[in-house]
Write a structure and sequence with these properties.
By secondary structure, this protein is an alpha/beta fold. It folds into four domains: 6-144, 3-Layer(aba) Sandwich (Rossmann fold), CATH 3.40.50; 150-221, Helicase, Ruva Protein, domain 3 (Orthogonal Bundle), CATH 1.10.8; 230-319, Zinc Finger, Delta Prime, domain 3 (Up-down Bundle); 341-411, post-AAA+ oligomerization domain-like. The chain is built from 19 helices and seven strands. The N and C termini lie far apart (62 Å).
Length: 417
Amino acid sequence: MRPKSLEDLVGQQHIIGPNKPLRRALDSGGMYSSIFWGPPGVGKTTLAQIISHTLKKTFYQLSAINAGVKDIRDTIEKAKKTKFMGSGGSAILFIDEIHRFNKSQQDALLGAVEQGIITLIGATTENPSFEVNAALLSRCEVFVLKPLKLQDLKDLTTQACTRDILLSQKEITITEWESLVRISGGDGRKLLNALEIIVNFTGVSSITITNALVNEAVQQKQALFDKGGEQHYDLASALIKSIRGSDPNAAIYYLARLIEGGEDPKFIARRLIIAASEDIGLANPNALLLATTGFDAVRNVGYPECRIILSQITIYLATSAKSNASYAAIGHAQSLVKETGDLSVPLSLRNAPTKLMKDLNYGEAYKYSHDFPNNFADQEFLPSEITHTQLYDPGNNSAENTIRERLKALWKDKYGY
């Protein structure tokens, strides 16, 4: 069922549709080294093979689970011996789960990518900003692949029922989609596996697929947790919302669900870092310090002991005072920037490294705060068009109430504190 062309690929129209970046690259006959980031079963491997077929380049595939530096070097040597065809060398090297490569393994790819011996395509389910080293990431374009939508899943099912050798011999009618779609979790591979299970379960040539049939045939075979599927996101969401709601008991329960399901502990630790800033912030600045330190500890220790570290962080965050004031402030600020555009920075705040800039009064009248009582000088910092605009509104907690009082004492009525 693996498609051979972009026209047959289901989903990902935001990158392969008309005039979209990946489509334009292929239409021009070229391709640059890339990272495909997205959940399982959305077409990362398929898209890499389609690119190879379209550009008529040799396709090499390695899995980061079992490949080492020697495998990488051997593949690069093979690529050197193939006939050169256009930019990016004559071969595409596809590395599945590239986030599992360590730094030395990733570094082994740099030379071949820089010299144009290969076009590298890496596939990852993890954020490449964290899992791919900066040197390699800077040489790649990152494409985000999205979970398949309802219509995508329906189209994929129709394709399977008409094109697959075995399924096409059956008379398959789908009257209810909810359970089938829910079990797939936007994963095309899981959808096709479920379809195969249902057909084998019934053992008849004429099949009507309903929610009840799906639940009976498939659901009993599903694990309690699948880190590539819908529950992966549901459980992570429940963990964060329990922390936000100050319920340590629920938070620990969902943490245990994630751990027992084999979730990557670094994934959990990253979510806890975000929660420490988004939901606690300045109400308890130590929360972010503990979460970031905890991430390093989790990375260094690993399972099974790192579950203790994750538990400590989770309970601390859940029982801490809460504030989303920092989160709200940057949201307000970004909205203001989009509305007002590139407003001029006040002359007093501008840097003046040259004589011309000094002659233009850059930096003139700036007051160095430390030269004034209480290290504060009353002066304007915002562009004149948005002066007096309050973007940070301290939360109602002891720590930020203190901050509010200080800002009010310094700025009087200017910002409405």
